[in-house]
Amino acid sequence: MKTFSKELSFKTSRSSGAGGQNVNKVETAVTVLWEVDSSEFFNDDEKILIQDKLKNRINAEGFLFLTVSESRTQLMNKNKAIEKIIEIVNKALIIPKKRTATKPSRAQKQKRLDGKKKLSDKKENRRFKF
After folding, report:
1. pLDDT digits over 47-90, tens only?
2. How far apart are CA 113 and CA 105, in angstroms?
3. What's the DSSP call for residue 32?
């Protein structure tokens, strides 16, 4: 399966949070950047769909970005970032099926009303009658 991973660019930075002796020296956090408009992998309709569904993740310059700092090595974070951005874009391309409105059948309505009547009778029988 072909992916758009050749269009991705990467930036590295120091990971946040508690660390050991390497925390101030090693840049293990990876930020992956992808310019949606200039992508040659997707057609215009797919680009519009991606931009619409991921508008909260796309900055003003049109870059979709994602930062990963889960692992202790830069290479593992880079691979994880590629996986995540591909997964996010693939989810954005899924068009949900339209729901067709249906009405409950006569038997379903009757079953619901019978249940309500049964419960009503049960509660009525609990009452003290003079």
Report:
1. 888 888 888 888 888 888 888 888 778 888 889 988 998 898 88
2. 13
3. E
Closest CA to 80 of 10, 2, 129, 1: 10
Q: Rounded mean pLDDT of the chain?
A: 84
Longest dimension (CA), the chain: 86
Q: Is 62 left (phi over 0), alpha (psi -120 to 50) or beta?
A: left
Is 57 within 8 Å of 50 (Cβ atoms)? no
H helix or E strand, kind and range, residue 12: strand 9-13
Q: Three-state DSSP class for 77?
A: helix
Answer yes or no: pTM beyond 0.90.
no
Sequence-separated (6 or more) residues with CB below 8 Å from residue 7:
34, 35, 38, 39, 40, 41
């408009």: which residue's tokens?
37
Tell me whether residue 53 is exposed, middle or buried, using C-beta atoms within 10 angstroms of its C-beta: 0 to 12, 13 to 18, 19 or more: middle
- Distance, CA of 108 to CA of 104 (rounded, Å): 6
